[in-house]
Each structure stands twice: as C-alpha cells, then as structure tokens.
Amino acid sequence: MKKAFITGITGQDGAYLAKLLLEKGYEVHGGVRRSASQPRLSRLEQLGVNADVHLHDFDLSEPYSMFRLLDTLKPDELYNLAAQSFVGASWTTPIYTADIDAMGVVRILDALRTTSPETRFYQASTSEMFGLVQEVPQSETTSLYPRSPYGVAKVYGHFITKNYRESFGLHASSGILFNHESPLRGKEFVTRKITLGLAELAHGGTTPVQLGNMDAKRDWGFAGDYVEGMWRMLQQETADDYVLATHVTTTIRDFFTYAAEALGMDVEWEGEGKSETATDRKTGKLLMQVAPEFYRPAEVDLLIGDASKAREKLGWEPKVDIRQLAEMMAKSDYDNF
Ligand code: NAP
Ligand code: F7E
After folding, report:
1. 3 in contact with ligand 2, CB cutoff 6 A
2. How many Å apart are CA 173 and CA 191, to the nearest integer?
3. For residue range 172-225, what is the model confidence (pLDDT) as tens digits?
4. Helix (H/G/I), strand (E/B), else coil: 297
5. Closest CA to 267 of 329, 198, 168
6. Full-prediction pTM beyond 0.85?
7. What are the residue numbers of the active site?
C-alpha cells in the first residue's frame, strides 16, 4: 500500500485529493494546523473521508516538527497543497504569505532531502505566476510576471522545486494550475461568493452580491479533475512541470450569468465600471452591484492556459466545462442553503 502525505488536506484540493488517493488504495496522511475554531474537517466530512485519513499536527512555518514528522512517515508521495491561497489577502499579509508560500516550500523540500529523498514531491504552483501575461495562451515556457505578493511568493516556490530537482535529484514536480473551483471552494473566492449570494437571493433574500472587477477573465476548471492531474504527475518516471487548464477563458460577468441562469434567473446587465448592475428580468430584483473595496491594487486581467503537454504526456483532460461548473456550484449552494 502506497503512503501519501498531503499538506493542506483541509482545503478544497486537499479534500478532493484525499478522496482520490483513498479510492486508489493509498494510506493517506494529512497535515492540519491548530485552530481554536472548529470544525476544521468540514470538507473531508462533506466528501465522507474524514474517518479514513490519518491527521498530524503540521504548520509550514515550523521546520523542526516537519522534519520529525517526515523522518517518521517517509511517505512515497508528498503533495504540498498548503498555502495562504487568497490573492486578495496577500496585500494585507505579504510577509506571512511569503513565509508560507515561498519559505514553506524550501522548508519542506529541505526536510525531505534529508529525511526521505526517495519521496515524490508535488508543488502547487499557479497561473497567478503569469500575472501580467507575456503571451496568450500561457504554457510551461511562458515568462512569469506575477502581480501580487501571492504570485511573487509562488514563483519562489516554483523555482526552488525545480532547483531541488536539478541540484539534488529529488523527484519534484510543479503543477501550474489555472483556477479550479467546486462546491467546496472557499467562500471568499469570486465563484463561490457569486453562487452563495445567488442561492440566498433565489431563496428570497434581498441583498445583492457585491463584487469588484467584472472584466477580469479566468480559465476555470473543476477541482476534482485537477487533483487527478496532480496524481498523474507523480506517476511519471521523471519529474517535470505541467500546466493544467481548460483553454477556455470567461469573464466574472459571464460566470455570474451562467450561475444565475442555473437558478432560473434572467440577468439584465446595465451600466459600466463602478456603476454596473445586474437585475433579474423576471422579478425585477437587484442581483449584483459593484463595490470598489473588492478591486485589487494590481489585477491579473486575462488567464487562458495551454495544457497540451499534460494532455500528451499525462493523458490528462478536464471533463467539466464552465457552464457545468457554474451550475454544479449554484445548485449545490441552493440545495444546501
Ligand atoms: P485552500 O482551500 O485555501 O486550502 C489551503 C490549505 O492550506 C488549507 O488546508 C489550509 O489550512 C492550509 N494552510 C494554510 N496555511 C498553512 C500553514 N501555515 N501551515 C499548514 N497548512 C496551512 O486552497 P486550495 O484552493 O485547495 O489550493 C491548494 C493549493 O493550490 C494552494 O497552495 C493554492 O495556492 C494552490 N492553487 C490553487 C488554485 C485554485 O484555483 N484553487 C490554483 C492554483 C494553485 P486551514 O484549513 O487550517 O486554513
Ligand atoms: O478572483 C475578481 C478578482 O479571488 C478571481 C486562487 O485559488 O486562483 C485563485 O486566485 C478574479 C480576480 O481568484 C471579486 O479581482 C471581482 O480578477 O476568485 P479569485 P484568483 O485571484 O484568480 C489562482 C489560480 C490561485 O492560485 C489562487 O490561490 O475575480 N473579482 N470581484 C473578485 N474576486 C474576489 N475574490 N471577490 C470579489 O468580490
């Protein structure tokens, strides 16, 4: 039985990956940081796998306990999914974000190099590294130009992974994943914020969803598809870096429309920029208004990924398209309201 260790097992991807690895017969271990607030395991519970995983106290800021844990576990595969993952918060916590998302990666790589150099390592890199995009679509060879403290920290994590592969021969791969969502997505991210807000409106609520930049475009896929790609990367004989993306880009506005339509609404858009609004033609209810506090100090305007390398070498393809994703999330929030 193969043994895997997942950092960030309580997050969206951690929960889907834990479920996938359990289905594949792995012994699954996960790192959980201490918190006064409970429950921490709600995503694992939602997927029905909380009782099947082995949990350990873990924090990416703490090198010595990480070292001791990996020395004991010596997992076959380690997936480093833990991060301060919210781009918006990285401007208010830039130093913390760098400590976890950049230094945290070298802490874990260095602990692995010493305690368990045979472990196969996955680093959660991100399309945010492309930032002010230097080419369209973006692939593994596109130059990086991050636009947030989060993106800058992740560039370090990406290159230190490559460097430990080249310097010490670790089987260390990075997945450059474009945005991926699900009903388990954190409530602060725009897709989930939209589907939660629309579910409340559909149940009779009257508070419109408050959003920032409606023109940004993202290449959105389903998290369940993307964790399969992570696993496939670690099954390769040679470690490498791969983009996972759908090659379809959508504005925030269009995602909002798809989610609203899934709940039977008929969206009318009016105005521009900070005056833009969305109303339901059927009921006349105001669905969305712009709130300038959700604009970012620097924006990533357009992301669209080229995942041909993953398709050819890993046989990986996304299965859920953007309309199916919006519908899945909107209906889940409506049903669980
Ligand atoms: P998420 O839902 O925010 O989960 C983040 C996880 O990291 C949580 O389990 C969190 O624990 C844990 N964590 C945060 N700080 C930690 C620390 N100091 N020590 C240990 N654990 C810590 O993120 P996600 O969407 O699943 O993303 C997974 C990874 O992929 C992240 O590294 C993210 O940056 C990256 N990524 C995500 C996307 C995407 O679109 N989802 C795209 C590209 C890359 P708590 O439960 O205690 O908060
Ligand atoms: O923003 C715009 C916002 O926070 C998407 C993380 O998983 O994917 C994620 O980062 C877009 C941005 O995700 C609101 O300005 C408008 O252009 O959902 P988001 P993100 O920043 O793309 C990457 C790949 C990661 O690696 C990250 O970990 O939506 N937007 N209005 C808004 N965004 C938010 N959050 N809230 C709004 O009200």
Report:
1. no
2. 28
3. 999 999 999 999 999 999 999 999 999 999 999 999 999 999 999 999 999 999
4. coil
5. 198
6. yes
7. 126, 128, 150
- Residues 247 and 307 sit within 8 Å (Cβ to Cβ): yes
Task: Using the Cα atoms of residue 71, residue 73, residue 74 and residue 78 in order, give the sign of their dihedral.
Answer: negative
In the chain the first and final C-alpha atoms are separated, in Å, by: 40
Among the bound ligands, name the one nearest to the CA of residue 225: 1
pLDDT in tens, 51-70: 999 999 999 999 999 999 99
Query: What is the residue-wise DSSP string for 195-254?
Result: HHHHHHHHTT--PPEEES-SS-EE--EEHHHHHHHHHHHHTSSS--EEEE--S--EEHHH
Residue with CA nearest ligand 2 atom 8: 179
DSSP state letter for 129: G
Output the CA–CA distances (angstroms, integers) from residue 35 to 41, 62, 85, 117, 300, in the order listed.
Answer: 11, 15, 17, 31, 32
Q: Under DSSP, is residue 161 helix (H, G, I), strand (E, B) or coil?
A: helix
In whole angstroms, how far apart are CA 193 and each of 11, 150, 186, 218, 293?
16, 20, 8, 15, 15
What distance lies between CA 31 and its chain's CA centroid? 17
For ligand 2, whether the C-beta of 217 sits within 6 Å is: no
- 173 touches 241 (CB < 8 A): yes
For residue 174, the cross-strand partners are: 123, 241
Which burial class, exposed, middle or buried, applies to 321 when counting CB atoms under 10 A from its CB (0-12, 13-18, 19+)?
middle
- Show Cβ contacts of residue 334 under 8 Å, excluding neighbours closer than 6 positions: 198, 199, 202, 203, 263
Question: What spacing in Å lies between the alpha carbon of 89 and ligand 1's midpoint?
Answer: 13
Residue 337 pairs in a beta bridge with: none
Residue nearest to atom 12 of ligand 2 (CA): 216
Q: Whose CA is nearest to atom 36 of ligand 2?
A: 190
259 token code pair:
């989610």
- Residue 212 Cβ contacting ligand 2 at under 6 Å: yes
CB contact at 8 A, 303 and 176: no
Rg of the chain over Cα atoms, rounded to whole angstroms, equals 20
